Amino acid sequence: MNIPQTFDVNQPTRIRFGCGALAQLPEVVRETGGKRVFLVMDPGLAEAGIQERVTGLFAGAGIPYELYDEIDPEPGLRLADEGVRRAQAFGADCVVGVGGGSAMDVAKAVSILLTNGGKAVDYIGLGKIGKPGAPKIMVPTTAGTGAEVTFTAVFINEETGSKGGMNGDPLYPDAAVLDPELTRTLPPGITAATGIDAFTHALEAYVSTAAHPLSDLYAREAIVRIARALPVAYANGDNMTARTDMLLGSLLAGKALATAGVGLVHAMAYPLGGMYNIPHGLANAVLLPYVVEYNIIGSPERFADIAGLMGYDVAGLPLIDAARRAVDAVFNLTYDVGIPDRLADLGVEENRIAEMADVALTVARPVANNPRRPSRDDVIHIYETAFDGYE
Asked: What's the pTM?
């Protein structure tokens, strides 16, 4: 792959990272100028005790807040529109998103709608956001999406069933508070799916046609950390060394994807979310080994690097054989953390594969970033292989 020697990087998010960092959230709100907080949270955080911790911090600091926790795992545009209506009624001047990618994406969209007006559907696409949003702060509780440092918010259009993203620099959060302690209670299945999602961000950014030296630094470090830590965090969620590595790896992977983009795995995952409501991280995780196998010949040097970064000995192997070790490495990682190895196990219908391929190929930027340019027949074949799984 020819690495472009010109690139444009804008990553304005201020980051506070570390165990116990959540306690600084009221201070961060005040630093952004926030006085009345619209708080977007995943509903499951109440049971985990995280909702009470966050609202208790605001109450103790005398910061008024309005809680919005009616968030779906795969959010529709209506959630952003309803959120801004409630935020306006409350008089919010700051938005805080706490949870996984869904809550953070809704929070980012509400921030934009507060200052730009209109409906969420008006901003699906690239470069459609004219004004900066209201100050927005993200607090991830999963180690997966990297949404706390990206310029994208992804939604399902309920009218069309399609999935698409708002994209633009105004979506970058003003600040992010990352506390590994908040990920301690993640169940193993969610740890696995979100962790492979983060790993996919790093891998696809590393082999992206838009990769550059700065994105490579983020991606390589993320690959090493996630490959090492994910099985441990999956096996023992109380291992805070692994949890910290995972949250840092997810952050770095988010920075890599924000500067180099993602590829065909993400494009093919979009219709699984839009048509079947399969969580994004799980869709990526199941597809990843099959797309890696397809992509090997498009960037053998980079895939050989990935195998090495994942701890596989590739010294002395012919290049293509070293690259193919990445397929084994990725499949073994997904297997070790209990990811299903075929789409049939997710309820996907084989007779809709051609339809899914047509939708996937409309996700233009990830398709363009992919190291191997896919045809419609290629995408259909990958889906068919992933549907049946490896024998």
From this structure: 0.95
